[in-house]
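Researcher: Checking consistency across runs. Here is Serine/threonine-protein phosphatase 2A 56 kDa regulatory subunit again:
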Amino acid sequence: MPGDLFPPKAGAKTAFDRLQTTPKTDVSLPEGLKTPKRQHSSRFDISEKRELEKLPGFHEVPANRRQELFMQKLDQCNVIFDFNDASADMKPKEIKRLALHELLEYVANNRQVITEPMYPKVVEMFAKNLFRPIPPPVNPVGDAFDPEEDEPVLEVAWPHIQVVYEFFLRFIESQDFNTNIAKAYIDHQFVLRLLELFDSEDPRERDFLKTTLHRIYGKFLNLRSFIRRSINNVFFQFIYETERFNGIAELLEILGSIINGFALPLKEEHKLFLTRVLIPLHKVKSLSMYHPQLAYCIVQFLEKDAALTEEVVLGLLRYWPKVNSVKEVMFLNEVEDIFEVMDPAEFAKVQEPLFHQLAKSVASPHFQVAERALYFWNNEYFCNLVSDNVEVILPIMFAPLYENSKGHWNRTIHSMVYNAMKLFMEINPTLFDECTQEYAAMQEAAPAKAVKREQMWKMLEDSARRRQAERNGKSVNGKANGPVARGGSPMETDDEQNSRENQRKMDALNIHDENKKPVGLI
């Protein structure tokens, strides 16, 4: 991992610690009034000499003096101002802003104006204006910062920052731009410092960074492998160390375009990126901040190589959320996107584990989870896959669908379950009847299995009493030392565990008569 991307050492005083010790305001906002967007200027290295004089425009000087004027304007743009004080240096700030716009227009509207001496000066100006430490996000009210709820920090220096980005993009996109000259200045260190800026809270800056890094990736072939590795390092640090980085969505958007351009067959390096980076990104708590871009990258990989389907689906099932309903809905959205590009042969490899999870989602008491899972049956391609593999899928899905048809609290779910059951019945009525009879038999056998289970527990209790009495030197017929706590026993068979669960479901659905004989199902 590049040194610039390492987290702060343990015990080191961070900006977050210092900010936490600052006094907090006692002013409270009226109820219902949103907190205004926080603004600040990052830790720019403010110039000591900030007096500027306006230089003439490019059209005001002869052509042989324009390169010299270009360099002078670049020097003016190297002066850094403090935007936290809006009233300070107002005239020099405006002179710099105008100089930036003139440089932008000069490069955009003229040909054969970029010369070799300009390259180091342009890169230097870009670095001085933009490369700076990005402070960690802090909620000024004192609560923990929540990127999903709190407003982002906006850079007050944006009037200058924006034009610097626009000028640099115009410069490297120019037809006169020479990559062979520029690669001496736009190097590994430049890329690493650019990646650090992706942690900016200002979404406007991250959008420009996304475009800038993508342009560099496209033009500098010698940097492509390094850029991919460096982005991987950012992801690794985010997944396994900090779980906090603002630019994950933008980096994934860049990678989505890069993946789309991968040549076939895929390199092993690219497959490892999928399994070791993209799939583990699903486990982070802030998944909602970048999930659309992540799902797009996953689908791009599967469109490139269908053989990766099994690894992707099993990886999603490994990180499937257990208690986070919002996150589970996102997973279901992604699974449907995967279904759209899934090869029928690959579907057969993952249908059992995948539909066992879908059965749990359909049976979820959270109606949005159950509803999203049942929406799959509105997808024509999904229904075709189910129809071709109904012998495997229906036995898995029958019990949760039937029980939800009567037991779910949400009426919308009832109608959606009915449509799914109707589809299964139309696809294979014979198999549907067999599943119905099997379910009825299982429910009918549940009381007998419950009795057998009670008898086994009694035998275990008696055995435990005898052993305890023998250890205490008492008679076998002596007084019991107390009941054995009941629960999941290692001696309990799978059938007995299933019967206990089925008994619970049967009681919840109230589908038995007074003699505990099951009645007709449908």
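Researcher: Does this match what you'd expect to see?
Model: One thing to look at in this run: The mean pLDDT is 82.
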